[in-house]
Design goal:
Length: about 650
């Protein structure tokens, strides 16, 4: 007699299939055994793989205390307080270490961890060596830490000389020097007759307003770069450290991470004399110098002609000076801010008279960080050059007039290294000449606060022109290292008729030529559009470019815009372009790119058939992954297969019931 319907076992088909799946998994697991365990290639060898390691240690084994040769050289007040900069042992940054993409790519290609970034090395050194001094200040009445720096290993402290002897700061092992928080100045302008003089030139403005500029950018051949390469410096970040900037001027625009924030984060910073950043500060100019300098680098065309050499750069402004000057702490804080916000070039129309050892390390470390430091040589005439321009690692700039003559005020000097510097780096040459290059700096049309314009003169004015030319070089090259950018300028300079070529204290290594410099290092420009078979744009498609040209260092990747377009700067030579997008077949094409050329590469991707995709998934589901150690079923495999068969028969029997 059959059971009542209410007491019968009823198992839904979906549940039966779930039971079958579990049984199959158990059977396969049993058949796999230890030999079939899931392998993670490389994990079992990770502990013994000496490629996975830290490249070097930043710990410095020195007896700094014993090596301290300098005394605290200043006249301390008989009472009251004094600000002192305590300098500690600098980090040893290996020559191969930079923050460039090349370093990261090299690490990836070698399957090893990339070397630490310069900033990380400097910060670690500062943290380790400053700790003892900071602890002392925190536990000693009369000693206050005002600011700590990493770009150069230094601490600014305030000492109450009634309670603490300033010489006591020398007791710490890592202290190498103590000095005042000295001042730097805006170079004194030339006499009024030079500053206010009108330039004479043979320049004819082009009819096309897109390339119309003030005389000086045209004489530097900047518009020729814009026309030939389709860029005016876009994507390059340049920090001007000066008196600030009048961002309301119609020819000036600052970069910012948040356009709605009046403090312009990422593009503006103001620093107090002790190096403290004034967080609520909004862009302004404490005089007019910074506004003028910024306009010669990146000024727009509100007047109908562009003031700047590279008007599309991401302009950053750091106020480290007033019209009366600024301090060492302000300058270093401004340089740190520029580097932390990814500046590619730092432009400084400021200085300290003579050769100043205290500015060597900040400039050297910035360059090691991958940033070009451009500085005005000063307005004190021949045989005089200001720091930091005369630091060998800076690019020093002098001035010329409209006739390409160097005016008397433009500085210059032959630097005998050992005589001029107290402790110069060993790799510096025995002697060298500053300036490195010259550019227009007499009566050049400049913006000034209040929406006004003036003709201004000085090496301060020539410096941003050179910074702008460097930005154009970087915008057209895949190699952004300081040696490449600087080399492009120095190898393409020229001299007027009658001037002896070769380094000298008047022209340095010559007059800057933007077009020649860009031509010397330019990459090719690759542009195109990615669409589907119907011609509709594909947004977000991945475009990967790998070159094998002589200076190729990495794979460049970008995604397409909303209209499917993309644009890349690539290394001249054979270039492989790969394009991928979800639900589309990938496309790979080899192209030939000539330096300075513009290559158009449009790609039409074929959509993957939905039915074909399903078939491929089904086929993959039925594939058994090959295992070199178990090419066949073997005994354990047969047991597993038998288990699967029995499970299927059992479920079918239940379904029939």
């Amino acid at each position: 007699m059959s059971r009542p319907a209410s007491s019968r076992v009823s198992i839904p088909v979906c549940h039966l299939r779930a039971i079958l799946l579990v049984l199959c998994c158990l059977a396969l697991a049993l058949s796999a055994g230890p030999a079939g365990a899931i392998a993670h290639p490389g994990l079992e060898d990770a502990a013994d793989d000496d490629r996975v390691r830290t490249q070097f240690s930043t710990e410095t084994e020195t007896e700094t205390g014993a090596e301290l040769e300098t005394e605290v050289e200043f006249d301390a007040p008989s009472n009251g307080t004094i600000e002192l900069v305590v300098r500690l042992e600098e980090a040893d940054v290996p020559p191969s270490v930079t923050d460039s993409e090349a370093n990261v790519q090299a690490g990836a290609e070698d399957e090893a961890e990339p070397e630490p970034e310069v900033e990380a090395i400097l910060e670690e050194q500062a943290e380790d060596t400053q700790a003892e001094l900071v602890d002392y200040a925190e536990t000693t009445p009369g000693v206050t830490v005002q600011h700590r720096f990493w770009l150069t290993n230094a601490v600014l402290v305030e000492i109450d000389v009634d309670r603490v002897d300033p010489a006591s700061l020398e007791r710490f092992d890592d202290v190498v020097d103590v000095h005042r928080n000295f001042e730097l100045q805006v170079p004194e302008p030339p006499d009024a007759s030079v500053a206010d003089g009108e330039p004479t030139h043979d320049y004819e403005p082009p009819s096309d307003a897109h390339y119309r500029t003030a005389p000086a950018p045209a004489r530097l051949n900047a518009p020729d770069v814009w026309r030939a390469y389709g860029t005016r410096g876009s994507g390059v970040r340049v920090a001007v450290l000066d008196t600030g900037i009048d961002v309301s001027h119609p020819d000036l625009e600052l970069a910012t991470d948040d356009p709605s924030d009046p403090t312009y984060p990422g593009g503006w910073a103001s620093f107090a004399p002790d190096g403290t950043r004034e967080l609520e500060s909004t862009p302004h100019d404490s005089g007019r110098h910074g506004t003028a300098v910024g306009s010669l680098l990146a000024g727009g065309n509100a007047t109908g002609r562009y003031l700047g050499v590279a008007p599309d750069v991401d302009l950053m402004a750091g106020q480290v000076l007033s019209e009366e000057g600024g301090t060492f702490a302000q300058l270093i804080a401004g340089m740190e801010w520029a580097l932390e916000n990814d500046a590619d070039i730092v432009s400084m129309s400021l200085g300290s008279a003579g050769t100043d050892d205290r500015l060597i390390e900040p400039v050297r470390h910035a360059r090691q960080h991958g940033v070009v430091v451009v500085a005005a040589v000063g307005n004190d005439g021949e045989n005089v050059a200001a720091s930091p321009a005369n630091v060998y690692d800076a690019l020093a700039v002098g001035a010329t007039d409209a006739e390409w003559q160097v005016p008397p005020f433009s500085g210059g000097s032959v630097i005998e290294t050992d005589a001029a510097w107290t402790d110069p780096p060993e790799e510096w040459p025995a002697s060298y000449v500053v300036p490195d290059v010259v550019a227009p700096g007499v009566a050049v049309e400049s913006a000034v606060p209040g929406g006004e314009y003036r003709n201004l003169s000085g090496t301060s004015m020539a410096t941003p022109y050179v910074s702008g030319v460097l930005a154009l070089v970087q915008a057209t090259s895949v190699d952004h290292s300081p040696p490449t950018l600087e080399g492009a300028l120095l190898e393409t300079t020229w001299y007027p008729d009658g001037v002896d070529p070769g380094p000298g204290t008047r022209y340095g290594q010559g007059i800057v030529d933007a077009k020649a410099a860009v031509d010397a290092t330019a990459s090719a420009r690759l542009v195109g559009r990615v669409t589907g078979e119907s011609g509709a744009p594909i947004a977000g498609a991945a475009v990967d470019v790998e070159g094998d040209g002589p200076s190729a260092t990495s794979v460049t990747s970008i995604t397409t815009d909303a209209d499917g377009s993309y644009a890349l700067t690539v290394t001249p030579g054979t270039t492989t372009v790969s394009v991928e997008a979800p639900d589309y077949h990938a496309n790979e094409t080899a192209l030939s790119a000539v330096a300075g050329s513009r290559v158009t590469h449009n790609v039409s991707l074929q959509r993957v058939s939905p039915q074909r995709a399903d078939d491929e998934i089904e086929a993959a589901a039925h594939e058994s992954p090959a295992d070199e150690s178990s090419p066949g079923l073997g005994a354990s495999g047969a047991v597993g297969a038998l288990g699967v068969v029995l499970a299927v028969l059992f479920v079918r029997r239940l379904e029939r019931r």
